[in-house]
Amino acid sequence: MAKYIKIATSGEVTELDLAGYVKLEDFYREISCDYVQAVPMNDVVMWLDEEGKLTGKLMNQVASEMFWEHFPNGNDFIVGDVILTAEEDEDGNLLGFSDEKIAQFSSLVGG
Prior knowledge:
The longest helix has 11 residues, at 99-109. By secondary structure, this protein is of the alpha+beta class. A five-stranded antiparallel beta sheet has the order 2-1-5-4-3. It has three helices and five strands. Helices cover 26% and strands 26% of the residues. A hairpin with a 2-residue loop joins strand 3 and strand 4 (44-49). The chain has one domain (2-97). The chain is globular and about 35 Å long. It has helices at 24-31, 61-70, 99-109, and strands at 2-7, 13-18, 36-41, 44-49, 82-86.
């Protein structure tokens, strides 16, 4: 099972266990959207609702703060729930996080 991190607009951080390799349809379901956008940030990729601002989703403060930390000169913000994954392997499959990495991340954001 691959483990990913979901950050809700409420600030709640949860671990997602998805069997096998993740598909875009998994992201659509988990963050309630039709299109996702990938935002690479060092060794983490943030997946978000590409149309979230158009559909009136709420600002995600935790995800926005992560975004601003990696793009300090930007003036954008993140809306809706997001999913964090590790980078891809050599075959293009998205990698999950180790239990240690999830615990480390959760403690940083207070989850």
